[in-house]
Each structure stands twice: as C-alpha cells, then as structure tokens.
Amino acid sequence: MKLYRTKNGCLVEHSCAFYSVEGNSWEELLTRDDLEAHLTKSIAGLPALTHNPLAEPNILRAPIGNQEVWAAGVTYFRSRDARMEEAKSAGGGDFYDRVYKAERPELFFKATSNRVVGHYEKVAIRKDASWSVPEPELTLLVSPTGKILGYTVGNDMSSRDIEGENPLYLPQAKVYARSCALGPGILVSSAPLPSSTEIRLEILRAGQPAFAGSTTLSSLKREPATLVHYLYRDNVFPNGSFLLTGTGIVPPDSFTLNHGDEIRITIDGIGTLVNFVG
Ligand code: DO4
Ligand code: MG
Fold first, then answer.
1. pTM for the complete prediction?
2. What number of other Cβ atoms are within 10 A of residue 184's Cβ?
3. Distance between CA atoms of residues 170 and 244, nearest Å
4. For a pocket test of ligand 1, which of 83, 201, 217, 250 has the largest count of ligand atoms closer than 8 A to its C-beta?
C-alpha cells in the first residue's frame, strides 16, 4: 500500500486502485503506530477512483508534515571510500573508516520540512560550492515511538568540496534551502525490505544520460532498525521523523551537478523520485 500527499489531500494506492482518504490530517496519519491497519480500514468499502490521479501534473506534495529529517552517513563501503579520498588533504581521511567500522553510526540533522522538496520540484546546489552531487537514499518514516511505518525515496543533496575541506563543515555541506528531496509517496509497511532491493540513480543533462549507477540494500552495512535505535536514544520526536539511510552510489570525482540537470532516483517497490536542479 502506498500513501501520497497531494494538493487535494491524502491518497492511498492499493492493489492498482486509488482511494481518496478524508478525515485525517497528514500529521495525524504520520504519527500512528497502526498506520497500515488504519489505512486498510479507512479504504474498506470506499469506491476506487475512476481515474489515476497521479497522471495530473504537479499534484504531488512532499510527503512530509512537521517531522524532522535526519540522515545516516558512511553506511556503504562506496561512501566510506569516497569520503576518505575527499577529506585526505584536510587530514580527515581516517574519520570515515573509523565511523564505518564503529558500533555507533554517523547520524546528522538534515532538514526541516521547509527545506524539503517533493517529486518534480527543484533541488538546489549551493552558490558557494564547486562540487555538488545528489545522494540517493532509502528513507524511513519513523513514528514518535520509534516504529518504522514506511519507506520513501530520499535525496541527500551534498556539497562535496565543502564537506571535504573540513569534516566540521558537514552541516553547511548538507543543510541549506532545498537540500533534500523526498517522495513521490510512502510505501506503508513495517516489514523490512528485501536485501535484493535495488536503488538506481540516473542524471540527465539536456535530456542525455550524464551519470547512472545502482546498488542494492545488501550493501547497506547497518540495519534500518539499528539506525532508528541510535537516533531515538535519549531523543524525542513528537511528530515522528524521516531518516535517510546513507548513499551507496557516488558519481566519479570529475562529476558535479549543473543547473537544469534532471535527477531520477528509483527504489524497487517504492517508486521514482524526479527532481531538477534549479
Ligand atoms: O559523512 C559524511 C556524509 C555521509 C553521507 O551523507 C552518506 O554516506 O550518505
Ligand atoms: Mg548521504
């Protein structure tokens, strides 16, 4: 079952049919530990819509209310490698290997909802950065009690030159206006995703492929539930949270995003999140 936030309200997709769900605010839905059962009950007996509402352009909104967005880092070997290289001259190379191997994961604050864009919206690259990349990441929707309620596609936009200059610049490399994209909707399920789940990134420049890469969840070093456990330790999330689980796809060092690029991130079973750089 998938849940979408649209300009007309909440939409549920179930067994190839769409249902308009009324009577619950987005905030209310995203804090329910029984979200899947609640939505199943809400659509029982409702007539399915006679058209595909997602065919309407610009109908989707980012699937976030007032949750905080957090992110995990260096959870794939590919990310560890890339960060060690980028931070070598700053003397930070060793940190990334240490955090990759450590019991405690790297977790950082990524965004408030006003910094997040949805499907088909524009993400930003910093004006003071010269090396910008998208990071395609499986993203967890977590309830206030720490239960994984579902999954969405996330883009942890990053300024690699700023991050590489000094690891203490990480918040500036990661947190800025339109630095995060989430969507298109939420796969509502508390069951772990299969390790064969593929994550794919395609970047198009003037309509032509500029980069393509893929990975699977079998390369994710840490269990999503363990990441949530660390995030919720001695912390409170009254509205729940979104947690990006790290990137396993890193374009070559010669690659940087340009204005106008189209970023397409697909995760099996969840969907494709499309954004433009602007
Ligand atoms: O430590 C830097 C950030 C790492 C990150 O965002 C990732 O691995 O996805
Ligand atoms: Mg990341």
1. 0.97
2. 24
3. 16
4. 83
